[in-house]
Amino acid sequence: MFARRAWIVLWKDLLTERRSKESLNALFFFAFLLLLLFEFALGPDRERLAAALPGLLWLGFVLAGLLGLGRTFLVERENDCWEGLVLTPGDKSAIYLGKLAGNFLLMLIVEVVLLALFGIFYNVDLWSALAPLSVVMILGTAGLAAVGTLFAAMTARVRARELLFPLLLLPVQVPVLLATVKATEAVLQGLPLAEVGQWLKLVAAADIIYLVVGLLTFEFILEA
Amino acid sequence: MTRWLGWLAALGLLAGLAMGFGYAPKDAVQGNVQRIMYLHVPSILTAYVAFALVLAGSLGFLFTRRLAWDRLAHAAGEIGVVFTALTLVSGSIWGKPTWGTWWTWDARLTSTAILFVVYVGYLLLRSMAEERDRGARYAAVVGIMGAVNIPIVHFSVLWWRTLHQPPTILSPERAPMAPAMLRALLVNVVALLLVFLYLLSKRLTVRRLEDELRA
Amino acid sequence: MTRDLSPPAPQHAVDIQGVRKAFGPNTVLDRVDLRVDAGEVLALLGANGSGKTTLLKILATLLRPSAGRGRVAGFDLAKDVESIRARVGLLAHGSYVYEDLTAAENLRFWATMAGLPADQASLQSALKAVELDQVAGERARTFSSGMKRRLALARILLGAPRLLLLDEPYAGLDQKGKKWIEEVMLDFKGKGGAVIVATHSFGRGLSVADRVAILSGGRIALDRARASLDLEELHRLYALSTENGA
Q: Fewer beta carbons within 10 Å, N or C terminal of chain A?
């Protein structure tokens, strides 16, 4: 029952996104813009860019994530469906899980595109480190999506939500960001994942903690 | 009750000042500047106590729905932010003569800065929510998330500063402390805690009156 | 989660006392006492801003009252919110329709969320009941407001509620649409359900009503059987009460 409801929320969001194509297109374009921004901000010095690459990559992921996550409940707001969700019986955290899954997928897709763009435009070899890199990306994105979905629900009906959402999300994300950048750094240098095991364990632990808090507290946000 | 606390706190502060400036010996390496530790360390400890109370209040509210818990969380959060700011400022003042810079990204200051931003966001969220009950619920969730994040912040920042990086910055309280310093520190910790409790008590009274007026 | 729609079958679909709702300093409902029986249609009259929507939302458990107690659909308003939600259908200004989904997809979503059968056959028959089966595969964006309302009703009726709360259901509908809403109400009443229809006009809502109540000044200013009032008297009482309070 729980799984079915989480799944139908995901199904609905994927269907809506596929038909309206609002978020994905804009986010792809945003990824490209970020590329240009970083290039202009850091100048043509190839070495400087390469050194900053892990940080830039995750900065890009987080910025794109902010945009995408902030829209989590936009479709509910626009279609006046929020109350409908409030009235659904049973465990509300199924909705959280469904939305989280949708956000996770959306963000991963955008991140892959951003990664590819980085590789092409900055002429960096990301291909050889793809497997360990994906592990880091999956772990990092999971945490971002977990907290982001929760806070998006919270700020969906609050004044100044565009301001409050990043203000709440970013500070919580900082430790995970630290860890993923460090891990990415090592991975891009060709080190095996075991070297950064400590960081990965931290991110994994954080992911689990965020997920549990989200599952337990979501019903308080989606209340009358 | 509040007035008692007020007098106790004032007494404590006096004692703390006396201990810090009079009783405790001058630091061998840093000189008198080191005495700011008697403010810096107790204030971050008090901030941690405050944020623990925020967690307690948040959980208490979500479980019982009694506004008293929410008031506790709110008041503790406010004062916690103040003490965190105090920690940051005192750390910065300590840093200038000691390290030659107003700010350094060492583990403690970085963690404290992150903590500061998290709980400022917490307070901002409260001010933006339109309904009392909804604001309380949302704040409770952020309060819980902020609190569970503290150990994660601690470890990530610690490893960030110590892994793969030779310790180039002398951590201000690295060397084992002389017992006299420890005693002075303890007195100041108690003093600041008393100040915290006094302020908390006052804030709680104000909030309770506000809620009663609203009802 | 199995949905238990078994008894206690209440004598009263709604039985509330002393309900009060304040938004900050603004008190919308002051002391509302209301009782509606099963098989009854209550027309709730009131000027704009009188609190009709607020009251309906409280009955639907979308809002929590600041004070007061009572039972809706046989369950306690404060303690058994989930049970109430399973037995009450609210048709308000928000129709809960996702514009990018088709009619069938919308129903499938809400049915699954409510734990109701969401197979093709059930959805088709639900759409047929509201005469939307021909456009089951059309996106809701293309629907008129009347069609969206019918879709919303299809969603509500899927759950076989015992109490129907309609907030100004005639707004923006043509004659045919209005007649159709009436038929739904009569049909629902015939099956033993109760209906509260909130309206600020004297139009069609009254023709099917068994009782009339006027919400004014945050209270129920009038609560009488429809049959005991003639239209003129009702107009007068309505004007009187709306003059005194919002």
A: N
Q: Is the pLDDT of residue B189 over 50?
A: yes
Strands C41-45 and C26-37, by their bridges, are unpaired
| Inter-chain residue contact C101 with A16, CB threshold 8 Å | yes
Q: Which residue has the tokens 């103040």?
A: B82
- C219 to B34, C46, C163: CA distances (angstroms): 68, 10, 21
pLDDT in tens, C6-62: 554 557 889 999 999 988 778 899 999 999 998 899 999 888 888 899 999 999 999
pLDDT tens figures, B44-57: 999 999 999 999 99
Query: Do A63 and A32 contact (CB within 8 A), yes or no?
Result: no
Q: Pick the residue from chain A with its C-alpha nearest to C85.
A: A87
Residues 6+ apart with CB under 8 A from A208: none
- Asked if A175 contacts B149 with a C-beta cutoff of 8 angstroms, the reply is yes
Looking at residue B167, what is its pLDDT? 40
- For chain A, the average pLDDT equals 89
Query: How far C166 CA sits from the closest chain A CA (Å)?
Result: 15
Are the C-beta atoms of A152 and A72 separated by less than 8 Å? yes
| DSSP string covering A90-103 | S-THHHHHHHHHHH
pTM of the full structure = 0.88
Nearest CA-CA distance, residue C112 and chain A, Å: 6
CA atoms C213, C216, C220, C222: torsion sign: negative
**A–C: how many Cβ contacts below 8 A?**
75
Distance CA C137, CA A84 (A): 22
Is some CB atom of chain C closer than 8 A to the CB atom of A47? no
Residue C100 and residue A81: Cβ atoms within 8 Å? no
Alpha helices by DSSP H, listed for chain C, are 52-59, 81-87, 103-113, 120-129, 145-158, 175-190, 231-244
Residue C223 gets which letter from DSSP? E
Q: Is C64 on the interface with B (CB under 8 A)?
A: yes
Range of the domain at A114: 2-222
Domain total for chain A? 1
ipTM confidence: 0.89
Is the Cβ pair C63, A224 closer than 8 Å?
yes
Residue C89 φ then ψ, to 5°: -120, 130
Checking if the pLDDT of B164 tops 70, the result is no
Nearest to residue B52, comparing CAs of B138, B153, B144, B188?
B144
Least confident of A8-22, A142-156, A166-180, C188-202: C188-202
Least confident of A95-99, B19-23, C189-193: B19-23
Residues of C in contact with B214 (CB under 8 A): 24-25
Q: Which of C90, C115, C117, C120 is nearest to C103 (CA)?
A: C120
C-alpha pair distances (Å), B2 with each of B16, B75, B197, B199, C236: 20, 15, 9, 9, 59
